[in-house]
Amino acid sequence: MPPLRDRGTPLLVLGVALVVLVLSYIGFYTSDGAVKERARADRLAEASENGSAQDASAQAIPEIVVQQVAVDEASDWIELSGLLEPIRKTWVAAEIAGRVVAIEAQEHSSVVSGAVLIQLDPALPRADVIRAEANHKLAELDLARQETLGRRSVSSEAERDRARAQERSAYAALLEARKRLDQSRIRAPFDGVVNRLDLDPGAYVAPGTRIAEILDVSTLELEVAVSDRQVGAISTGDAARVRIDPLGNDLFAGTVVRVGQAPDSDTQRYPVVIALDNAGGRILPGMLARAELGIGSRKALRVPTRAVVREFEIDYVVVINRVGAGGGNAERIRVQTRPVPFRPDWIEVTDGIDSGAWVVTDNPGRLRTGDPVAILAEAGA
Fold first, then answer.
1. CA triplet 259, 262, 265: central angle to 5 degrees?
2. Is position 367 within any domain?
């Protein structure tokens, strides 16, 4: 029996060792280190595949859109702001004394020329008219009698002259009485809007009392101030473009109607008045407006703003040196630029490229000097 146990001992040891080895392998394979190592290997393989794809795509020649630039006539504009004012405004005042018996207009309402705003008590002016009419009629009868007597050589020339003078004086008194009666109706002097009217029936007004403020808003005016260098380029009749802040980005057509011939003593700037037609009634007095005025023209080379690349405060454009009809090589060129007033989609190039150059207008920042390109489309300046 002991010899048999001696022969089975190696087999038992071998089996135990095999089990320990299998368990160790399983433990190592599922350990954190092994898992991370396999993930790292997978990422490397994926990066290698992506790198190959990127290399393949990098070898493709980019397609671009180009535009030829040219020097042309460019207008210089200035922008100035101010408040819109009605073309006419006035206070209507009482011309005779009287008590208010009726108010025919409402504050902030529209009125037409001649419309009655306030009615004063007409009793006394009407009585004066009746009295004046009677005196004038009596004077007419006396003059007719003197003329008849004169033809019969009964009345002297002096008596006839005195009768004519009395008739004229009575007629003048009648006209004055009629005028006072008409002045009992206080009327609008022109078409417009009643801006202020603060009276109630029963109020007593004296001559000169302000009754209502009337604004003519059919045309509005914008007064701006320009420098001595700018005023010489502006003339009566020049067109202006006006933006009104409360009305958004809509452009309104304006016309220069007056140009100051002397500067303001405080600012030393010259007043320029721009008129805007307000037939639609959208524009209101007091709105803030910005006027764009042309002050001459000059030669300039302009490119679309999207054609300019800015890196580290330096501007570049990408010019295509053409090899054939459909392709060429890119060249980055540093340029000097300045903005074009009121045209954010364009920028002026003052130095760096010449007229006739073909510049890339679609994402030029992706190109470097020497890159081959295929021209997809082109447009004139």
1. 125
2. yes
Nearest to 317 by CA among 350, 280, 277, 365: 365
What CATH number does residue 137 fall under? 2.40.50.100
Please compute Rg for the chain using Cα positions. Answer: 48
Mean pLDDT in residue range 351-367: 84
Q: Rounded to the nearest 5 degrees, what angle is found at the Cα of 80, between the Cα atoms of 78 and 85?
A: 140
Tally the C-alpha atoms within 13 A of residue 229's C-alpha that lie toward its C-beta.
Answer: 2
Q: Average pLDDT of the chain?
A: 83
Domain residues for the domain of 168 are 95-212
CATH number, residue 330: 2.40.420.20
The string of pLDDT tens digits covering residues 19-58 is 666 666 565 555 555 555 565 556 555 545 554 444 444 4
| Final residue of a structural domain among 242, 269, 296 | 296
281-311: per-residue pLDDT in tens?
889 999 999 998 887 667 778 888 888 888 8
Integer Cα distance of 3 and 316 in angstroms: 96
Q: What is the pLDDT of residue 273?
A: 94
Say if CB 301 and CB 317 are below 8 A apart. Answer: no
For residue range 49-94, what is the model confidence (pLDDT) as tens digits?
Answer: 554 444 444 457 888 888 888 877 666 778 889 999 999 999 999 9
Residue at token pair 């390109």: 373
Do residues 123 and 226 both lie within one domain?
A: no
Contact between residue 315 and residue 334 where contact means Cβ atoms under 8 Å apart: yes
Neighbours of 220 (CB within 10 A): 27
Residues 192 and 287 both lie in one domain: no
Edge-first strand listing for the sheet containing 185-187: 185-187, 116-120, 98-103, 204-205
- The angle formed by the CA atoms of residues 37, 38 and 43, to the nearest 5 degrees, is 95
Give the residue from 257, 272, 296 where a domain finishes. 296
Number of domains, the chain: 3
205, β-bridge pairs = 98
- How many CB atoms within 10 Å of residue 276? 20
Tell me, what's the pLDDT at 53? 45
Is residue 138 one of the residues assigned to a domain? yes
Using DSSP's 3-state secondary structure scheme, residue 331 falls into strand
Write the burial class of residue 226 (CB in 10 Å: 0-12 exposed, 13-18 middle, 19+ buried). buried
In a domain, 304, yes or no: yes
